[in-house]
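Memo to structure team: turn this sequence into structure tokens by end of day. - J.P.
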Amino acid sequence: MNLVSHYLNSMGGFMLLALPIWILLRTLWLMCKQQSPRWGRELLLVFFVLYLIGLASQTLTIPPSLFSDPQAIIARAIQRWETGHGISLTPGYTIRSMLEKGSYGQKVINLAGNVLIFAPLGFLPPLLWQRWRHLWAAVPLSAGVSCLIEFLQLFLGRSVDVDDVILNTLGGLLGYLLFCLIPKKLKK
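Reply from structure team:
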């Protein structure tokens, strides 16, 4: 539980900053469209936006030093790609390594964490929008977001791992399967 609370605490500040901005923007949007809010949907949208902010805060946090020289960022990313430093493109290598040699905490963070953090991405979009209510839409969304994060991490100096994409996609699938268990009445 300490690991979970640690991550929730580190996401909390970003989420608290985003919440009033989202509420203001969403209120203005609804007023411009002259729509009345449907409170159940609005609550789900708030949760989804806060989830995305939390996800970005844990995967795409930018060290202040990176802002100094954009050309150096690209040069370092190219160098990392050419040398393979901090990049694992062998499917299953990190998963197998974690299972064989990792501590309990590493297994929870790396394996279970990478699955669970993407479950909402497989669950919430189908709940909010009709077009994501198919397996062939929801699961590729999780895979695509995960690939984008891994690509951006190349520029942020963070590790890039194909196993993260595999685990994240599995999490999206798990979230989608949970969505499928919801009775049709509640989905409306």
